[in-house]
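Tokens as discussed.
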């Protein structure tokens, strides 16, 4: 009995030391704790109460809607365990299958996304400082193989960190066996999730099939993988710092114009190792809310080191990457477009059948057509009697002309935009609105054609609005 008592106290002490060395917890912190009812999370809940840190714990149970026969019992159990340690409790339901079908995700990925979203919302709602989950050393090994099979690089294979922003994992140095022994010695029960035995989930197949097979070749496989992850983590830290240094030397933010641009100096960039170059490109894209694929990163690296001036690449998010003499420019000439369809050309041809508000996601804008003078900055007014629906909103064509109101005669649309200090690809932010008879009514957001102007004899007006939308 003495050995058992010493062992469970050793586990608690080990977690306390991890928190002291690796996590930013302070006495009195309010913490969201993810508690499923399984051995890991129940052990975490009880260990946290034994640390004498005066933590304010909120136990959050996530009902994924996948095991309706087991959920009520688990909720009741977790609520009781939370009450036993003086923690608040809340059960949150999420619709995993709806997200899975909508976004074409696996069940595991949809559940993970909704789970962490629910934790984040709970943290805001309770005013908590951190979110804590019960990932352990066995989870770390399984995650290594999941990421390996998905093609992760060094960063992914270095494993889950003890801290990732506001997310804390204090049990990563403990095995599943450690936690089960802790519960056994403390006389604490836990729930068994039947889905952990279902072979339809990748993590289960790795745990139940792949790992036992590999352990026939190396009985110390799990320790070997953890050591490898630790080595990769240290090397990852070094590479990340080196990439940051190259990033700082070779990039700058240009805030001139309507949208900020990131400019990459090709000479400074080309002096870096290829491994660092890839990281710099990835970092630029992530900071600009784009998720680059490996192919995107390779193409942009070649553009910076070998590409000719004026060559352009475009990511599906709307991020455009262009070589301009000695630099590569990353920007959103058309606003942030929430798609992930790979590199593509943006086209615009929108039929407008009458009054209304029309979302133009291609440009992150909305067009408003309404009777009367309307309200809002940048509204253009035209004579209603001269408007023939349906209208057409599209990009201007090469050489296309119109007669701007107030100008002595016709002018090329492109030249007019240049005179208005709208240059290059930014010109696509101002498409033309075409009347039913084929004439240009307006360059939306900027100017109307003279023949559509309001006069003293105008009986009714049409207001044309052009606003940026939020994403």
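Sequence:
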């Amino acid at each position: 009995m003495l050995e058992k008592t010493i062992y469970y106290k050793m586990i608690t002490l080990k977690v306390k030391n991890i928190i002291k060395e690796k996590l930013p917890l302070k006495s009195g912190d309010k913490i969201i704790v993810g508690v499923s009812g399984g051995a890991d999370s129940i052990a975490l809940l009880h260990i946290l109460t034994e640390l004498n840190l005066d933590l304010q714990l909120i136990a959050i149970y996530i009902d994924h809607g996948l095991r309706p026969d087991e959920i009520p019992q688990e909720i009741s159990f977790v609520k009781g365990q939370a009450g036993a340690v003086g923690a608040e409790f809340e059960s949150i339901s999420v619709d995993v299958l709806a997200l899975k079908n909508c976004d074409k995700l696996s069940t595991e990925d949809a559940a993970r996304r909704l789970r962490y979203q629910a934790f984040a919302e709970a943290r805001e709602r309770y005013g908590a400082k951190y979110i804590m989950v019960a990932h352990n050393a066995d989870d770390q090994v399984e995650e290594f193989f999941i990421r390996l099979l998905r093609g992760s690089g060094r960063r992914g294979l270095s494993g889950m960190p003890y801290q990732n922003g506001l997310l804390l994992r204090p049990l990563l140095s403990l095995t599943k066996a450690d936690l089960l022994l802790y519960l056994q010695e403390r006389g604490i029960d836990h729930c068994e999730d039947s889905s952990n035995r279902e072979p339809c989930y990748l993590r289960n197949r790795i745990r139940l099939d792949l790992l036992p097979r590999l352990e026939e070749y190396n009985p110390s496989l799990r320790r070997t993988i953890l050591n490898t992850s630790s080595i990769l983590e240290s090397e990852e830290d070094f590479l990340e710092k080196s990439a940051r240094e190259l990033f700082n030397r070779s990039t700058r933010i240009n805030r001139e114009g309507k949208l900020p641009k990131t400019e990459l100096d090709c000479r400074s960039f080309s002096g870096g190792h290829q491994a660092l170059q890839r990281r710099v490109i990835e970092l630029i894209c992530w900071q600009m809310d784009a998720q680059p694929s490996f192919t995107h990163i390779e193409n942009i690296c070649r553009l910076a080191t070998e590409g000719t001036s004026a060559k352009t690449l475009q990511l599906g998010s709307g991020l455009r990457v262009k070589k301009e003499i000695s630099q590569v420019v990353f920007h959103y000439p058309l606003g942030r477009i929430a798609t992930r369809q790979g590199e593509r050309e943006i086209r615009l041809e929108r039929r407008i059948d009458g009054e209304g508000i029309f979302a133009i996601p291609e440009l992150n804008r909305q067009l408003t057509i309404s009777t009367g003078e309307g309200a809002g900055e940048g509204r253009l007014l035209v004579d209603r009697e001269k408007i023939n629906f349906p209208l057409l909103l599209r990009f201007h064509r090469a050489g296309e002309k119109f007669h701007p109101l107030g100008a002595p005669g016709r002018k090329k649309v492109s030249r007019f935009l240049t005179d208005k200090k709208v240059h290059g690809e930014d010109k696509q932010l101002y498409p033309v609105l075409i009347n039913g008879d084929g004439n240009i009514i307006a360059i939306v957001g900027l100017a109307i054609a003279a023949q559509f102007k309001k006069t003293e004899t105008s009986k009714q007006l049409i207001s044309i609005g052009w606003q940026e939308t939020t994403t």
